[in-house]
Design goal:
Number of strands: 19
Number of helices: 13
Low-confidence stretches: 333-337
Oligomer: single chain
Shape: elongated
Number of domains: 2
Strand content: 15-25%
CATH architecture of the largest domain: 4-Layer Sandwich
Strand order of the largest sheet: 6-5-4-1-15-16
Mean pLDDT: 89
CATH class of the largest domain: Alpha Beta
Length: 382
């Protein structure tokens, strides 16, 4: 049985003020195109359908169009809620949609929902485990002590009537880890707090395949068949070197598993570039790649630059972030205000510029820079 594994769609997400809606629509069109050529039996979406619990009208419309396109291809669709989703919203109309083989599991009520699909080798049972927290499931298992996500997931799986002699696939959206293996993290993920979110991947070792969501980089969690497919789009510059794809799983007889990928191409890529301003905006450099890519730029000029954002955006319209690395600004931000010797090297304007960059994550615009200079000049004249 062939199926697609997707997760972390984050529909409606903005990155550094840039909406990703058009990128998301573009990727969903590619998914539908692959379904037409690859003909999978099912599409699995392992959580974080939306970027926020109360998605925008536009985000809901985009997901509605994607879901309608999926359903029209006569493919089973299995979806769970993630930590960004509202479980109740994701579960809306789930009983009605199950009649056209679109299965949602948003709210966990002590029993994992299961869906059986068949192929020439018999049944495959898909187990849907939405994102759960200890507090939300405490009391569902007969007074069992549940203080961590590990204990919550363990209780949920042990309570299910799973025949491991048959073929079973799990959908889950948790932070699964394996002792001794450091997972690949992204800036766009919500970081676990105090280790209570971590779940030992050994708990799900007996499934024939575990379709995981939450981490944005594709990777295994301790075993080849326990896998994060990653997000379909780059949502932070920590992901700029990731190759985004659909994870394609071929499940044959018990014990026969093949995992491949289908590439997903963005409208605009996400890149980081570094150098002096005049060189970066020159035709020779800017022609090396798509000028419309989403960029984070690090300027190494020693001289003060007036309106670097405006000059860069005249060539690179999708500039998302700007930082400086030189003898004046390549100073640890924490030391600027704690070490008089360090702060003494910077002018009042540079000091404020560093503070603004540290707080806002981007340099001042031309208008903001003029205001600051005016205020500083006013102070000097008094």
């Amino acid at each position: 049985m062939k199926f697609f594994h997707l997760s972390d769609l984050h529909i409606g997400k903005s990155v550094n003020g840039f909406s990703m809606i058009e990128e998301q629509k573009h990727v969903f069109e590619q998914v539908i195109g692959y379904i037409k050529t690859e003909r999978p039996a099912a599409v699995l979406i392992a959580g974080d359908v939306y970027d926020r619990a109360a998605p925008s009208v536009e985000a809901v419309r985009v997901f509605d169009n994607f879901l309608t396109a999926l359903a029209s291809e006569n493919v089973a669709v299995l979806i769970i809620s993630g930590n960004h989703d509202s479980p109740e919203r994701i579960s809306f109309a789930s009983r009605l949609l199950s009649e056209i083989r679109v299965f949602f599991s948003g709210v966990f009520d002590s029993a994992m929902q299961s869906v059986k699909l068949s192929d020439e080798h018999g049944d495959v049972t898909f187990w849907l485990l939405p994102f759960i927290k200890p507090l939300s499931v405490r009391g569902l298992f007969g007074g069992r002590e549940i203080e961590s996500c590990d204990e919550a997931v363990r209780a949920a799986i042990e309570a299910a009537d799973i025949d491991y002699s048959a073929r079973n696939v799990l959908l889950s959206h948790q932070f699964y880890t394996k002792a001794g293996i450091e997972p690949i993290r992204s800036e766009s993920e919500l970081n676990p707090i105090g280790g209570l979110d971590a779940v030992d991947s050994d708990i799900i070792e007996r499934f024939d395949y575990a379709a995981l969501g939450h981490l944005h980089g594709k990777q295994s969690a301790g075993a080849v068949h326990i896998r994060y497919c990653g997000s379909p789009i780059k949502y932070s510059f920590s992901e700029c070197r990731h190759d985004k794809s659909i994870t394609v799983v071929d499940l044959g007889e018990k014990g026969d598993l093949s995992i491949t990928g289908l590439p997903l191409t963005p409208i605009h890529d996400m890149r980081e570039i570094r150098g002096e301003l005049e060189k970066l905006i020159s035709g020779d450099v800017s022609a090396l790649a798509d000028r419309d890519d989403y960029l984070r730029v690090t300027l190494t000029d020693e001289d003060e630059i007036f309106d670097p954002v405006g000059k860069l955006r005249s060539v690179y319209p999708n500039l998302m972030g700007l930082s400086f690395d030189n003898s004046r600004t390549g100073i640890d931000a924490d030391s600027i205000f704690s070490d008089p010797e360090v702060s003494g090297k910077l002018s009042p304007y540079d000091l404020f510029g560093e503070f603004f960059l540290e707080v806002q994550g981007s340099a001042m615009t031309e208008v903001q820079a003029e205001i600051v200079r005016g205020l500083l000049d006013m102070g000097d004249s008094q």
